[in-house]
Amino acid sequence: MSRMLAGGRRFIAVWGLVFSQLRHHRFRTLLAIVGIVLAVLTMTLLAGTGYGVLETGESQFESADRDLWVTSGPVALSAASGGFENTLYDAHVVSSEMSEYDGVRNAVPLGFHTVYVSDDGSEFDTIVATGVTGSGSAVSISEGEGFSGGDTHYAGGEYDGPMTHEILIDPQLADRYDVGVGDTLYMGGSLAAAESNEFTIVGISGTFSQFLGTPTATARLSELQTVTGTERVDAATFITITLEDDADPEVVQAALQGDFDEYEIRTNAEQLNAVVQNQALVLAGAVTLVVLAFIAGLALTANLLALIVYQQRETLAAINAMGVSRGTIVSLLAGHGFAIGVLGGIIGAAVTPAAAAALNRVAYELTGFEGLVVVETDVIILGLVVAVVMGTVAASVAGWRVSRLPAIDQL
Amino acid sequence: MPADTPPLIECQNLTRSYTLGTQRMLSRSAERPTVTALDTISISIDRGEVVGLSGPSGSGKSTLLHLIAGLDTPTSGTVTFDGTDLKTLSGRRRTKHRLENVGIVFQHFHLLDALSARGNVALPLVELGIKKRDRRVRAKELLEAVGLGDRITHKPAQLSGGEQQRVAIARALVTNPRLVIADEPTGELDTETGAQVLDRFKSVAEDTAIVLATHDPETLAIADRVISLRDGKLVADTSKSADISESGPRSQTESVSSQSNSVQ
Asked: From the DSSP assignment, how many helices (H) and strands (E) are in chain A?
């Protein structure tokens, strides 16, 4: 009982000593806390970025409001066409056939092409253009009326109907060229084609620029195919299918897959995985960021506390020489690590959302993607826990090692 | 001291050698060079005795202090404290032994700058699990005894060198140790302050054996006995009656060498 009492008194006294030292060495304490805050931020923001890269991709698929994705062969970026490879041929016919299936509300082929674009026909930039079929009802319009009428140029696959020369552009493109609804832009797959094809802007839409993360113009698929020279094979990147509200995606997927076995039909999540698996660098980058974040947080915390302990080695040697036990010394340093870890962890966790918001603003300006850094509550809690646990463990280990040094070597 | 009372400290054929470097780059099997800091020293120290250790730098004073305090273990020979061979104690038990029996006054004080004078003095009592109120009372008593009753809440940075030294002395005495060792206790003080500190030291630690390692003749003057070392060997062991200040170390060595042998 008396030993327990003595132990309790020792515990309280050690904590008093911890706080005395933290209070006395305010600047050192402040620097240590800032270091832990940076470690937590490194961990949460890097992990949030890695997670966000995956999450953004998934949310972009979700926000596209499609249920199934039809592709022919692997979905990959193409140096030739820009955007995705257009490997799905006879897109109009295939999508029309798929539209007839039970549970399918519509099946829309999409093609992505790099095109030249100019507001005056003399200086051209390259952007990604998206080709859609029908009246473009799958596109959200924020300004203007959108496409008028149907895809007349397709003409049953003959591509000899009148071209409407209507396009939708996203707000960034409108700003870049200082144009709006009713103005015109030149666009084509080659400079010659662009110079001879003047399109009228009939609406402002951010639908595909948000999806692709780059300024985008949207035209009817058949007209885009014609100005890029891919109309002969009716090429598209994929067909997107929207289902009726009561349709079961897996049932429709199975039915379509049975009849169209030359294509791959995937749900949103499956399609994202397929895209991401083809983008090995993106996937490796995201995973590396998460792993690096964890290691960086650990290393920063451990180094910082080891440094603080090492600074005190002479004092620790002196009190050990006086008879203060190694256990008490390690407890004292563990207390330091715990206190600094808790303070740094809490502040780091508290400023993470604001830091993530600031990073997202920068990321949006640079990439056009919103919410690229996604910091989940779990990640923040993990950051806090790592700061506290690693702070305590690192200080304890460093203290244990220092306490094992012969006291006389330090005095 | 009754004649049959065993000494508090007894050192028998004490030798301490240090290995220089590891020489792994050259050869694992190569014999590593060693330096002998203490060479077969045999001395004993009684309870309440004040012993001065003198000798030039590198003579082995600090090494002998460390061995007597249980901070280090000898390469050969024994250090017995009240009948217990310190070499037989584990590291943990030696630490406990120091806490309960030994007070140390470091040359550079090693006070914790975050703590007040009272907090520093009370620090060893924390390890003993003593109540906070009792710790504060005991620390205050000792600070008053060394003339710092009005400075108990001051932190080391607010104290002069002499005051810090007195705090270090109070801290060394707070556990009522049976032995106090002090390495150059006046090394960083001016002559007048050093003399005051030594007077306090001796008056406060009446029943405690004190071992002082120093170059300073003023400090040695308070000792009951002076042990002189040179190159790790004991060259003189003279009682207070010998005139330290007037005879040089070498002549003193010669005059008392037979006495030192008799101590062994």
From this structure: 14, 10
Q: Chain B contact for A406, CB < 8 A?
A: yes
Q: Is the complex ipTM higher than 0.85?
A: no
Which chain A residues have a beta carbon less than 8 Å from that of B100? 323
Report the CATH number that the domain containing residue B244 is assigned in CATH: 3.40.50.300
Domain membership flag for residue B3: no
Q: B160 in a domain, yes or no?
A: yes
Distance, in angstroms, between A36 CA and closest chain B CA? 22
Q: Which of B108, B110, B114 sits opposite A24 (nearest CB)?
A: B114
How far apart CA A220 and CA A8 sit, in angstroms, is 79
Count structural domains, chain B: 1
- Which tens digit of pLDDT belongs to each residue from A47-103? 887 777 767 666 666 666 678 888 887 655 555 544 556 778 888 888 888 988 888
Contacts of B66 in chain A (CB under 8 A): 408
Cβ pairs A/B, distance under 8 A = 90
Owning domain of residue B247? 9-263
**How far is residue A11's CA from residue B129's CA, in Å, rounded to a whole number?**
9
Enter the DSSP assignment of B7.
P
Name all contacts of A252-257 with Cβ < 8 Å and 24+ positions apart: A252/A67, A252/A68, A252/A101, A252/A102, A252/A103, A252/A104, A253/A68, A255/A101, A255/A102, A256/A68, A256/A70, A256/A98, A256/A101
Are B126 and A7 inside 8 Å of each other by CB?
no
Residue B1 lies in a domain: no
In this structure, is residue B4 part of a structural domain? no
